Amino acid sequence: MVDQPWAVEQLQKFVARIEAMAKLYRTMHTIGSDRPEAEGIDREISELEDELCRLEPAIQIVMDAVDPELRNYQRFDPDLPALYGGVSWTERWYPARRAAEKAVGLHTVGAEAKRRMQEDSGRDFGPTANGYDVADFELVWPRELLIREGEALIAHAGQSFDAQCEWLLTEAFADTSAVDAMRASGSSTDPWGSDPRSGLPHSPREFLSRLVEIADQLREASVRRPYWSQRRRAAVPSRLDISAVAREFVRTVDSFRVNGYLDQAFPAVCVDDHDEVYVDAGDVLQQMLGIPNLRWPLQATRLVEVEDALFDVIEALHDLVARPRSRSFHSYGGCGWHYSQFAIEPARVLYRWRVNQLLDRSDLGLTLSDDGEDIGRLVAVTDDARADLVTRLANQPPGRASDRVRHGIALFRARGSTEHDKRSAILVLAGIIEERRQLLKDNLVRKDEGALFDIANNFALRHQDLKQQGDYDPAFLDWIFWWYLATIELSDQLLARPTS
Q: Helix 38-66 and helix 4-31: axis angle, to 10°?
């Protein structure tokens, strides 16, 4: 039998290094490889990779001493490419991590092992008021999306609930802490051999229900603070240019592709299905966008070479993504994961969130619209106050006026909107204000409402003749548009007032 303290130490190191490496990869994905601190993170990852490879022979000895079956996990092979069989590089360490934790529980005297692992790792495996330590859970999804997808899974739970729940938690969190807690919820006793637990969830479904209830307490992934020398220099991070955005966007799309988000649009061919027709994603995008020589997976250089290709592809993939709520692994012939039960809206929410995180770091001045007639389309960035105004009006219930407002907003803020587009948008809003002229006249001081129509009528907006003033800066159109939009919101509030 292997020496107990040595075995615990080796297993603990192995698990901790896998967790640390997964967090570093998540951080790299969040901040992008072009940031100054990325070099230091990449160096840390390389060091962890080397240490894991050195540790694995010792782990194999421990596994064999405890139970030879534990060695049959999907081992890491440093010679394999970063993506193999549809499984990401870091995911291939997770089966080894689970086997290592199981070995600790089988090989050591329960309570003593728990004490050693807690002291070595500084983590608390005991229950909290909510049944598990949520401080270990780090979200890499929008909080609202976790709630929405969690509630959908609970409402339509079937025989595959455990697997679907595991997939949801794998996607939504930075490491396996939430997945491990979910698995432990299926047991009524402490896996470390101590007294039966009290207050813990007793099933994966109960675990997910509680997690959704306390979603506001979950920690969100954040960019790591700069290192010492970077803080002393106090350098302002440079904005990404279009080439850097294209490179980071390709990496983002690859993560969606690997996780099956494009399998509904571009189905993967199973090695056992000889009749399935292969769909070339590059050909589909070429037909949709009219851009020649697009390759799949995407190539950043091509997206920059062709004018507007990057922007067109960003918008097109928004329409094609769908989140697979189920997956199953097909090991034969390196086939990989098979995805099913696709949901479109959750995928689009996540896609917009991730792409907008990238665009926020760029100098392009664009963002993917989250609401309105132009949802999923690139629009010009505005300040927070005007963005909130658009959100409020774009989310009004359907109706004749609200539909016209949404159309006017879409015309005005579209990527590459022309001066003519902006004039048309203003005329849409002016028509709504005209219909409410009496309302505004009754509620505004003196004849202030008349100024609204003087501008529209006398500044070459509604009419085009010699009486109109047309010699003004196009920036005037921005001012009048936002003024009219705010006036419509004011009139909405006046209309909503209770009548006496």
A: 150
> Measured between alpha carbons, how far is 306 from 313 in angstroms, rounded to an integer?
11
Whether 310 and 304 have beta carbons less than 8 Å apart is answered as yes
Facing residues of 342 across strands? 324
3-state class of 485 per DSSP?
helix
Compute, in degrees rounded to 10, the torsion defined by CA atoms 163, 165, 166, 168: 120
- Alpha-carbon distance of 213 to 196, in angstroms, equals 24
Q: How many angstroms separate the CA atoms of 483 and 173, rounded?
A: 43
Using alpha carbons, select from 305, 484, 29, 2 the residue that is nearest to residue 492.
484
Residue listed under structure tokens 């692994």? 329
pTM: 0.65
Inter-residue long-range contacts of 310-313, CB under 8 Å, 24+ positions, other chains counted: 310/242, 310/245, 310/246, 310/249, 311/366, 311/378, 311/415, 313/285, 313/289
Reduce the DSSP state of residue 219 to 3 states and report it. Answer: strand
Place of tokens 């240490």: 51
Cβ count near 391 (within 10 Å): 13
Distance between CA 135 and CA 138 in Å, rounded? Answer: 8
Among 96-105, 395-404, 414-423, the range scoring the smallest mean pLDDT is 96-105
Burial class (CB in 10 A: 0-12, 13-18, 19+), 64: middle
Angle at 70 between CA 67 and CA 76, to 5 degrees: 145
Angle formed at CA 210 by CA 105 and CA 173, multiple of 5 degrees? 65
Q: Which two tokens stand for residue 254?
A: 């690859």
**Lowest-pLDDT range of 135-139, 175-179, 441-445:** 441-445
8-state DSSP, 364 = S
Sign of CA dihedral 251, 327, 353, 403: positive
Provide the residue type at 89 as one letter: W
